[in-house]
Design brief:
It is a single chain. This protein is 30% helix and 34% strand. The protein is an alpha+beta fold and 129 residues long.
């Protein structure tokens, strides 16, 4: 058996990375089923996009590597800051106040065990004598 890593990414999620990291820390290192349950009952706004990202990574593992659900664990989940959208809000005396709308980039890596198919020995040709 060999270890296989499967990756899924989510870019420009319109939630600040500081808030996404709170939920990401809850599921880091857990099994896939346990992580799904945690995300299902977490009230924070970033739980739903993280659950969809987890489902995408599971689908990648099943389709591309033929891995079963029981062998999958969350190996690495990284939340980085994406581009900041800059907006302005009017204030008194004709001034403006800046508003920064922060975004997040999330990278999720699942680790699973794959069973390598048994290789058949190449057929040998018998020489006619």
């Amino acid at each position: 058996m060999s270890q296989v890593s499967v990756t899924a990414k989510l870019s420009r999620l319109r939630i600040a990375p500081r808030k996404v990291r709170l939920v990401a820390d809850l599921v880091r290192g857990k099994s896939v089923e346990e992580a799904r349950q945690i995300l299902k009952y977490t009230i924070r706004a970033s739980a739903q996009p993280l659950a969809k990202l987890l489902d995408s990574a599971i689908a990648n593992a099943r389709h591309n590597y033929k891995l079963d659900l029981e062998s999958l664990r969350i190996g690495r989940i990284m939340v980085n800051q994406g581009p900041t959208y800059k907006r302005f809000r009017p204030e008194s005396r004709g001034r403006t106040a800046p508003i920064q709308k922060k975004t997040s980039h999330i990278s999720l890596t699942l680790i699973g065990q794959s069973e390598e198919p048994k290789k058949k020995a190449p057929a040998t040709k018998k020489k006619k004598e």
